[in-house]
Design brief:
single chain; alpha/beta; Rossmann fold; two-stranded antiparallel sheet; 39% helix; globular
Length: 327
Amino acid sequence: MKRTKIIAACAAAALALSGCGNAIEYKDVAGVVTTTAPTESVPDSSSAGEDTEKPNDDSSSIPDDSSTVDDSSSQPDIPVLENQRKTEDDPDYFKKCAFVGEAICSGLDFYVKEVEEGSVYAENSAHVTDIADTRWEVDGEEYALPDALYAQGRKYIYIWIGPNDLCNYDPAGFTDKYKELIEEIVFANPLAYVGVISVAPVSSDYEKTLTNGTIKEYNLALSEMIDTIGNNRVSFFNITATLADEEGYLLDEYASADGLHMTSEAYKVLAKYIYDNQIHPFLIDDKLENITNDSSQTDSQTDEGSADDDGAENDTEEGAAEGEAAE
């Protein structure tokens, strides 16, 4: 029932935001990821002019350019995407966030006190190809990752994964697999916002294994892939400038002994970056949340009413049985 409400709400959001220029993916009733994009109806030229008089060939009938009326003012304004988003920061932002990744991502759970317990979905050896299949427990029930995120109800989902995969794929192959992961998460969480965090830089000591030039190449491909998705709820966050020195190396105070993993200070700086660059939700979301909340309350009342009716029927049946026994 809850899934159905989310589907309907997403359809409403897609229609409301169709003027933004980008398609928004959502799950329809057939369980298929679809998009709703702005469309413009074009009249059928084959039937035009059948009942219309041909214009007079007399040149005097052609209006002078100076008398042409400019009707551009009558055209509807195209909505500006940023005008449809909230602008103020949310002081409880981290309470609404979840983080998905591998070993480096897990540091958010250990070093950032603002990150809620149970909101970091990180496996040390996870890859972009298999992390969606990992199992997680939410409220006593076990789910695959995308459904666990839905069950937890987090509004902002950050994906931070990469170093384990850079040796296995070229940039195109890496971004193709990353896109599949994003689509799985969006499919299960159609009202959530997804933030893709760039692969972090490494120190000069670690460059013998993985160079920052290679990381930059993969991050560029990742950024371009996000742009091609055409989903206004998916964003890219490049953290390189926040953690690196002028030459692109991970700053010494942020680098652990191996040059790949990071210190607690690095995670605190990263947390501040995430907070200062919050994903501002669409204004329409408040209305959609009210719709789903109202529907949930109605369903709850209906279920309670059904339970009362069942109880009354049981009481009647028990009374009748006692009457028969007395006879």
